[in-house]
């Protein structure tokens, strides 16, 4: 049967599958194709596909013998007025499914959980996500359906990560950002991943093999323990040094590097001036911030001043990673430090 299709590299197949599923854009009635180095995903007609995932084409697929529900919402029995409030999107992290339920539907949690458990292939437990808390951004979760805890192994960009969703921050919505930053790293670079969490930037950069050394820093001991347990399975683990430390203390004695990643979207601004001082001429900073959509245009100018001023720094990229709230976006900024030797 012919269908709209998205062709992605095998290493990015799982990331793209989860993203399409989250957006209710993956056809669940057709089998995914494997074609050598490529994975071909059947895509819902008319669904909006993020440009970064690629341009959909058309391919021939085999249908499943028994057609599956098109979206999880088809499996929840609710009066029409409540059905309208059901969120379309959810997150899959390994065999854990997370969903944010509006307060009006809280009593329907178990039914929503059971529907997701049936809908998402390989799901073991479904949790209600009540958001991140504290500086460690740990999620408050309650079990809606299924069994066990919120520890899992999640595949992202071809790497298996150890995750404990209650003890350390992780978001599957950053998968493309982790890959994008890693692609920017040049041969022989030294990189600091500040506020590294369970280490998806650091490990992806190490796997890609061009960086000479990556230092990953986080103050949450659970995050560093998970990073170390992921690295224990990786043949390239010797390129990553993981440090449990406060970012301010680390920066006070940090060595110069070629690239810094600072992903602490609500508070990172206070570390930006110090970050600017440890980057070598010609080096780069990837900085993340939750910013009001309305003020996003002028925000970059302010950030250039904070990091060290226009004479030394320029903004070379700014993009929306994902919407954060009705008014705010998570933004990615990439700054480059001027290199007087190149200007000469
Ligand atoms: C938004 S998460 C980023 C995780 C990771 N970079 C990723 O892409 O998945 C922010 C992380 O910063 C850490 N953190 C918060 N304040 C910190 C501080 N003062 N020093 C070091 N790490 C900190 C938290 O523990 C958390 O893991």
Architecture overview:
It is a single chain. By secondary structure, the protein is α/β, with parallel strands linked by helices. The protein has helices at 13-22, 80-83, 109-119, 175-184, 200-208, 221-231, 247-252, 272-278, 296-307, 340-343; strands at residues 2-9, 33-35, 38-42, 57-60, 91-93, 96-99, 125-133, 138-146, 151-156, 159-164, 190-194, 213-218, 240-244, 257-262, 279-292, 313-323, 328-337. The protein has a 7-stranded mixed sheet, with helices on both faces. Strands 2-3-1-4 form a 4-stranded antiparallel sheet. It has a 4-stranded mixed sheet with strand order 5-6-7-8. Strand 16 (313-323) and strand 17 (328-337) form a beta hairpin. Helix 4 crosses helix 5. The longest helix is centred in the C-terminal third of the chain and has 12 residues, at 296-307. The termini are far apart. Bound molecules: S-adenosylmethionine. Residues 135-137, 169-170, 174, 195-197, 200-201, 218-220, 223, 246-247, 263-265 line the site of S-adenosylmethionine (SAM).
Brief descriptors of the model:
single chain; 344 residues; alpha/beta; seven-stranded mixed β-sheet; four-stranded antiparallel β-sheet; 10 helices; binds S-adenosylmethionine
Summarize the structure.
With 344 residues, this protein is an alpha/beta fold.
